[in-house]
Amino acid sequence: MAEAPKEFSPEVIWDPEVESYLRGALGDERFDRTAAALSRPPRTTCMRVNTLRTTPQEVVARVLQQLGPGCDPGVVRVHPKVPCAVILQGSGPHEVSYEAAGGREVIVSRKAGEAVLRGAPVFAPGVLAVSSGVARGDLVALAVGREKPGGGDTPELTRGTTLYTCTATNPSATAAAGAGVAEVTATTAAAAAATTVPATDTAAPDADVNSDGLVADQPGRSGGSRQEQQAAATGGSGAAAPAAAHGVAATEGRRRPREASGAAAAGAKAEDGPAAAAAEEEEGEGEEPGGAAGGGDRPGGRPRRRRQRHCAAAGADGGLAAGLAVDPTATTADTAAAAPALPPGWTASSQGPVAPRRGMYVGLARAAMSRQEMFRAREGLALELVEPVFRVPPAVGGLPPGWVMLQNLPSLVAALALDPAPGSRVLDMCAAPGGKTTLLAAIMEDQGEIVAFDRTHSKVSEIVSLARELGVSCIRARKMDAGKALQRPTGHQEHSNGHGHGNGEAVAPAMARQAGDGSAEDDGLGDGNGEAPRMGGAVPGRAEGGGGGGGGGGGGSAEASVAVAKGASRPVVSEKARQREERRRAAMLRRGITPPEPRTANPADADLPAAYPPESFDALLLDAPCSALGLRPRLQQQAGPLYLRQCAAAQRRLMDTAVRLLRVGGSLVYSTCTINPGENEACVRYLLDKYGTSFQLVPAGPPFLGGPGLVGRHPTMAEAGRPIGAASDAPASASAAATSARDASAGAAGGGAGGVAAGGGGGTDPARVGSAPMRVAGASEAEVEAVVRPGGLVEEEESACGGEGGAAGGEVWLSAAEAAMVQRFDPSDPDLDTIGFFVAKFLKTAPVVG
Ligand SMILES: C[S@@+](CC[C@H](N)C(=O)[O-])C[C@H]1O[C@@H](n2cnc3c(N)ncnc32)[C@H](O)[C@@H]1O
């Protein structure tokens, strides 16, 4: 293991176009702060108290009671502005000493790492690489693996990789190691810090065998390609090829003398037990014909199990010479002579050199499984954090069921801003897993009706489960593409019976894949806000995005009859969907979450209409599927420009339906969990410009916690490299104007119907709207007037964020007065310390024509 850095400081790579656009939008300094904040978890955890069951004060008292007399009472408190929120205080990053790990290390997947940062333990499927000889009970340094550059969420390391614990040795120590162990001797000072490799394959009997019993990554063992790639990726260049040319020497069936690898390996032997021993026997053979560099499978047979070790060692020049496979039959002297150096921080592994994990260490952990078990198991606890870099508040698992749920604070703000009256009829267009829906129900004192849509069948079950768990009865959930929920004139009516996929939805699957908050086994549709619908018994930090998939509701006492559950349900599940559901349930079980009842029937309420006539609802929440660029922590930012455009297009389509379904006089809240202005301010602009005769923007609160929105016209991603005028200066100055305008407008808004009307005649010019005349960022008013059209887009070319395919153009955000009325939660604001989030509220003043 390389020297573990004391500080957590991951380098998160963004798509260059997206980064450039966001830098332009936020300014360099704010972007850097934001990006850093996004790579870390918030220090506080928010529990929403189910006020239908208990009070926040009661929750605080119970938590303190559980924490015991010695605990700091400041660790739990009721939020001063959001009385239904109880805040638990965490801390970090902490300096962690990894000395106790004695060089042992485990590298986990990004998703598992993100879950760890929020307080979760590591489950077996999240483990990618383990030092040889790690046994149950061992302390290990826990690091997060990087993703392949440009490889989506494909990790650089394949699950099943064995790391070779590298301790500097000297030739005499090597000689003393005895027969059967070839050690590569570090010959430079740099190498001394990095590497000495116990090179016989038997150092880890099944190290390169994955959970299916096959060689984990054939290309990586070819002695060439993977190492060359890695060398290229790290600038290792020229040295790689000659080193690879050393080729792959033989492997064997011999066992490493355990005593040669020290106590840890001996421990592994003792702990691994008969199963591991049997596996060793099974894999003990496998002579690879001379230099199996191609990694070829046996002709006509299953892939040969191989045990070659690719070790990299330190050479005199300190440069990378990857891909050297050590022949265990070679003498120490031979090997040492052939061995070039790994640069400092690099680690030898069964897949070749592994890049330094600088800044990616997340804590000291104790292995709950041996290395072999971690790789073989498909589920189960693999590692528990002993000394995490970020400490989440202590668990509050003892609270009665249905008392609290983990929910991000801004999510509460969105529902509270809508503030539906008891007895009203509300539509939650994108409701699963139901966090905001159930809060709306609590605000309505469970009186009235909330229709809750989600386009994903299994997620509708989650809404049902959560409502049951909370004892809410006014929610009626059904599977529905909310964009199709508007009744069309007779003759055009689609039967929205729960199968509603099809036209215009190409966007959603792509969005879902990326918007999902770690739902690896999910059905592909992410909830985007990282909230797991777990009530009562919640363990802070463990449910939110924990290792993939918030999971569903389920379990819980279900005294209340949820309207969703009744009605003539019928089987609608295809074989593919059934398998997907099975995987989803298995994943939930692995994480210790009780899945909802098996889905055998459509959970949709059969009493609900297939679609609704215009003006059907008193209040409407559009918590839109989005790019989720506000979620924390994120150790990889994958969103590309096309994806962001797709998100914005889908949001506008949903807005087009929302504005019609709401009755005149009703309120609409639009929210996202992204920092992308193209999905936030530009979408508000779209609605105001297109429906300005029927809608006005009103203050999105109380409570008011977030900052103002972004002001002005802005270059798109494509233009970001050549900003128009001083565009990047705009946010700072404009937000100051917005802040002062905010106070004025929020005060003037009174009961929510006030504020500054945006529009009132179609095509809003943000340079003129509102009380604070302003110069639109970086563009003259004439320029703006020339280009603005409904939708906040620039004439001629579709906005990169809002259009259906245009790559250039510009987008228009808000006037200062408008910006003051929305809430933009900045994840880098230390006082807020929330995820990135956006909330806007509109009042419908007249019917939408057409
Ligand atoms: C941000 S999440 C909603 C979170 C939810 N409001 C809560 O607070 O728990 C967005 C949800 O929208 C759903 N969704 C995406 N496109 C949809 C559509 N066209 N119609 C209905 N639901 C959709 C996704 O399945 C996802 O569950």
Question: What's this entry about, in short?
Answer:
With 850 residues, this protein is of the alpha/beta class. 26% of the residues lie in helices and 13% in strands. The protein folds into two domains: 42-94 and 395-674, Vaccinia Virus protein VP39 (Rossmann fold, 3-Layer(aba) Sandwich); 116-295 and 303-388, no CATH class.
Q: How would you portray this structure in words?
A:
- It is a single chain.
- This protein is an alpha/beta fold and 850 residues long.
- It is built from 21 helices and 23 strands.
- The longest helix is centred in the last third of the chain and has 21 residues, at 641-661.
- The chain is globular.
- 61% of the residues are buried.
- Residues 411, 430-436, 453-456, 459, 481-483, 508, 525, 527-529, 531, 623, 625 line the site of S-adenosylmethionine (SAM).
- Residues 196-314, 483-609, 749-770 are annotated as: Disordered.
- Residues 196-208, 231-250, 260-278, 558-569 have a biased composition (Low complexity).
- Keywords: Methyltransferase, RNA-binding, S-adenosyl-L-methionine, Transferase.
